[in-house]
From TrEMBL:
Chain ranges passing through the membrane: 49-72, 78-97
Domain of life: Bacteria
Protein name listed in UniProt: Phage holin family protein
Organism expressing this protein natively: Teichococcus rhizosphaerae
Assigned keywords, A-Z: Membrane, Transmembrane, Transmembrane helix
């Protein structure tokens, strides 16, 4: 115990650097473990979404065929009924596509809060060094 209280400043600084490196290493390991777990969950979620999308598309095709057949029973020709159903489907799909693309603009994907926080941390570190 007496040996611990008589340590030199370089020894203490060396211990500080070593313990800080160990802390950072452990935090990086924790982040990796959490990311691996999250990636596994995302993979399972994507698989479920892919299966659901395939089933939904098949159901949509059947419903669109039924709508076209109904229009034929209402007196329209098969070609005209198919044209109406196809045009309406394409229009709705195009509008949904545009809305999705607008939501994915690159400026909206930048993690603004993280960038701001990192900038603040850097400024605080600069001030502490001065």
């Amino acid at each position: 115990m007496a040996n611990e209280t008589n340590r030199t400043v370089p020894d203490l600084l060396g211990d500080l650097v070593q313990q800080s490196s160990t802390l950072v290493l452990k935090e990086v390991q924790l982040v990796r473990a959490e990311i691996n777990e999250a990636v596994g969950q995302v993979g399972r979620g994507v698989g479920s979404i892919a299966i659901a999308a395939a089933l939904l598309m098949a159901g949509l095709v059947i419903l669109l065929q039924a709508l076209s057949a109904w229009l034929v029973t209402m007196g329209l020709s098969t070609a005209l009924a198919s044209l109406i159903v196809g045009a309406a489907t394409v229009l709705i799909g195009f509008l949904l596509l545009r809305a999705g693309v607008n939501r994915l603009r690159a400026t909206q994907l930048v993690p603004q809060r993280t960038v701001h926080q990192v900038s603040q941390d850097a400024n605080l570190a600069k001030e502490a060094v001065r």
